[in-house]
């Protein structure tokens, strides 16, 4: 590590000096330990092994002298979520390590968390947007059709059941910039917790369930064999992790809430969230195919009403998987006829009440922003010219809710979803009067872009009705009705698209240990807050999310520039009347209490105020 990087990291001496300041505020020593963990005290091995001076330990009254002793206290004395364990999965006579937690214990940990006790939902509901109950309203998982239908099915066999919808997501990701290491995490949530809590990482409503093997099987030279082995390895590992759900879904388990109430819970696999490659891997279909229906690959670009498709037949797929007992050749042929890869026992094969093809859900980040919008920007650059697009971006007037890309948008690389969102806000406006080659009319281009943007924003509504779902289809139809403009311009021939906390030694064991400690500390911190403050939470009343747009301005907590001159504010940030507005504000806030003045009087008072900078 460079000297400059070392200077940025907190030393143990500086941390303990600050900890002594905290202790003078009469906080319990547990909070000091929590605070030390939050300061990432493990950043360097030298800091981990450095002993604290005896005088500082005595002044603080701590029960630990160094980070090793603090870690021992966390590991042995603090309760936490289930521990990771490592097992070997054998595929094609090769053994692979998979780190995972007991999924039933993880479900119990979320269900019994006192922080969620007032927010859990236990039964499906039908919500309506009108008094006549003709317009269905969909916002939380328990307002959808899946939970309602599953509850009816389960009640016929086990009346009084409480469904625990299990949501699984996975995404292969890079965890360190050294040695090109990567990880394959699998996360789990339960649908009983409202989505406005689930989507906030700070609420810890998700559980890191497993780390799957990240091998590429480079030693297997045959590409088809390698792909088949990777698919079987993935399903063997995920199947081992999810195996306890098979019995628990039918037989039920006693689930205790954070307030002590006990429910007879049936954990059902409900949803799989992932990008398109993850969906292909989970469903077992071939790349370039749709994970939900059997539409031919050459018809993927057609509108819904024109394409010839049917939902994938789960029964036929399960029948094909049973052909494994008939021999390898018969199994391969049966799977090919059913439209899936020859995977030996997919992880969803033995799970009850599941249709994997209906369980996969679209990914807004990868499939809309980094898929749909990425392609749209490329098409518009070809149609209008990159230089013209960038010039129009630079000429946009300043606006609070629009980011100005001073260097344009066509040369951006590694564009994040936030940047794509910001681009979409002005994309239609910068192409309204654009000139197309051969003097072609831009009307179809505008309608096609209009349709895609409408679809993008409608798809992200926090609450949907039967009417907004119709609007979603209409927006997509608007694009399909006008998409041929890109073919006429020669841009497209068709629209068929397929698609750091370790020392780098035994990374997964270190990552799982680090995570367990952080979870224990977070849990202990919540307990301390509860003991000091008490439970101030109000009873939760589930209701549809607010659909109005919030127009309030949010100021950054840590600005990128600490100070600028007024001339720079005016000339570089476009605040032409900054001094006048500041004087008017000062004049208003310095008025005596309960004093009312006219606009003219306020202007006169502002004229007498001198801004000394």
| N- to C-terminal distance | 43 Å
Residues in helix, %: 40-55%
What is the helix tally?
Answer: 25
Beta content comes to: 5-15%
Anisotropy-based shape: globular
Structural class: alpha+beta
pLDDT under 50 segments (min length 5)? 1-28, 41-50, 500-504
Number of strands: 12
Mean pLDDT: 81
Radius of gyration: 29 Å
Largest sheet entry: 9 strands, mixed
Please sum up the structure shown.
The protein has 613 residues and is an alpha+beta fold. The protein has helices at 3-8, 12-23, 29-38, 45-49, 54-60, 67-77, 103-111, 145-157, 195-198, 223-242, 245-251, 276-283, 314-321, 328-338, 356-359, 364-384, 386-394, 417-424, 443-459, 466-482, 484-488, 507-533, 566-573, 578-589, 599-607; strands at 85-91, 94-100, 127-128, 136-138, 162-170, 173-174, 182-190, 207-212, 253-256, 262-273, 360-361, 464-465. The longest helix is centred in the last third of the chain and has 27 residues, at 507-533.
Commentary on this structure:
- The protein has 613 residues and is of the alpha+beta class.
- The chain is 44% helix and 11% strand.
- Helix 16 crosses helix 17.
- It is globular, with a radius of gyration of 29 Å.
Secondary structure layout plus pairing:
Blueprint: H1 3-8, H2 12-23, H3 29-38, H4 45-49, H5 54-60, H6 67-77, E1 85-91, E2 94-100, H7 103-111, E3 127-128, E4 136-138, H8 145-157, E5 162-170, E6 173-174, E7 182-190, H9 195-198, E8 207-212, H10 223-242, H11 245-251, E9 253-256, E10 262-273, H12 276-283, H13 314-321, H14 328-338, H15 356-359, E11 360-361, H16 364-384, H17 386-394, H18 417-424, H19 443-459, E12 464-465, H20 466-482, H21 484-488, H22 507-533, H23 566-573, H24 578-589, H25 599-607
Parallel strand pairs: 5-10, 10-11
Antiparallel strand pairs: 1-2, 2-8, 3-4, 4-12, 5-7, 6-7, 7-8, 9-10
Helix pairs in contact: 2-3, 3-22, 13-14, 16-17, 16-18, 16-19, 19-20, 24-25
């Amino acid at each position: 590590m460079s000297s400059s990087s070392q200077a940025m990291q907190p030393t143990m001496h500086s941390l303990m000096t600050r900890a002594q300041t905290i202790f003078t505020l009469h906080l319990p020593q547990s909070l000091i330990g929590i605070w030390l963990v939050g300061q990432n005290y493990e950043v360097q091995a030298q800091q981990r092994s450095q002993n604290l001076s005896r005088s500082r330990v005595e002044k603080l009254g701590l029960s630990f002298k160094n980070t090793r002793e603090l870690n021992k206290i966390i590991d042995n004395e603090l309760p936490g979520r289930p521990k990771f364990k490592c097992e070997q999965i054998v595929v094609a006579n090769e053994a692979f390590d998979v780190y995972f937690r007991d999924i039933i214990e993880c479900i119990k940990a979320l269900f019994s968390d006192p922080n969620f006790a007032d927010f859990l939902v236990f039964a499906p509901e039908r919500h309506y947007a009108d008094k006549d109950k003709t317009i269905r309203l969909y916002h939380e998982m328990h307002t959808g059709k899946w939970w309602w239908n599953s509850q009816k099915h389960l009640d016929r066999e086990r009346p009084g059941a409480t469904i625990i919808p299990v949501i699984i997501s996975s995404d292969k990701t890079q965890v360190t910039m050294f040695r090109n290491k990567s990880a394959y995490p699998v996360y789990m949530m339960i649908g009983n917790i409202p989505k406005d809590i689930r989507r906030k990482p700070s609420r810890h409503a998700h559980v890191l369930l497993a780390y799957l093997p990240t091998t590429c099987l480079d030693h297997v030279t045959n590409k088809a064999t390698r792909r088949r082995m990777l698919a079987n390895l993935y399903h063997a590992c995920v199947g081992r992790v999810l195996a306890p759900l098979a019995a628990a879904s039918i037989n039920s388990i006693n689930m205790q809430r954070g307030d002590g109430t006990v429910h007879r819970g049936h954990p059902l696999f409900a949803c799989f969230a992932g990008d398109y490659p993850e969906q292909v891997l989970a469903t077992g279909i071939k790349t370039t195919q749709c994970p939900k229906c059997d539409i031919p690959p050459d018809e993927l670009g057609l509108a819904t009403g024109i394409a010839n498709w049917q939902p994938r037949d789960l029964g036929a797929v399960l029948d094909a998987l049973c052909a494994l007992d008939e021999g390898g050749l018969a199994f391969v042929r049966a799977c090919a006829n059913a439209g899936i890869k020859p995977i030996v026992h997919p992880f969803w094969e033995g799970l009850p009440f599941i249709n994997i093809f209906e369980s996969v859900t679209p990914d807004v980040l990868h499939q809309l922003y980094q898929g749909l919008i990425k392609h749209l920007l490329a098409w518009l650059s070809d149609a209008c010219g990159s230089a013209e697009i960038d010039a129009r971006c630079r000429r946009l007037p300043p606006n609070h809710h629009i980011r100005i890309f001073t260097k344009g948008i066509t040369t951006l690389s590694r564009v994040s979803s936030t940047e794509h969102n910001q681009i979409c806000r002005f994309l239609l406006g910068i192409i309204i009067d654009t000139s197309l080659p051969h003097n072609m009319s831009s009307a179809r281009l505008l309608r096609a872009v209009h349709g895609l943007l409408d679809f993008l924003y409608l798809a992200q509504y926090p609450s949907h009705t039967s009417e907004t779902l119709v609007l979603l289809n209409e927006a997509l139809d608007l694009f399909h009705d006008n998409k041929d403009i890109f073919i006429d311009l020669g841009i497209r021939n068709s629209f068929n698209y397929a698609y750091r906390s370790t020392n780098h030694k035994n990374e997964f064991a270190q990552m799982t240990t680090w995570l367990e400690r952080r979870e224990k500390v977070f849990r202990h911190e919540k307990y301390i807050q509860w003991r000091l403050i008490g439970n101030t939470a109000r009873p939760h009343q589930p209701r549809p999310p607010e659909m109005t747009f919030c127009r309030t301005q949010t100021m950054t907590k840590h600005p990128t520039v600490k100070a600028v001159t007024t001339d720079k504010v005016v000339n570089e940030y476009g605040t032409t009347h900054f001094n006048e507005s500041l004087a008017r504000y000062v004049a208003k806030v310095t008025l005596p209490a309960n004093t009312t003045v006219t606009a003219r009087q306020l202007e006169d008072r502002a004229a007498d105020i001198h801004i000394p900078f």
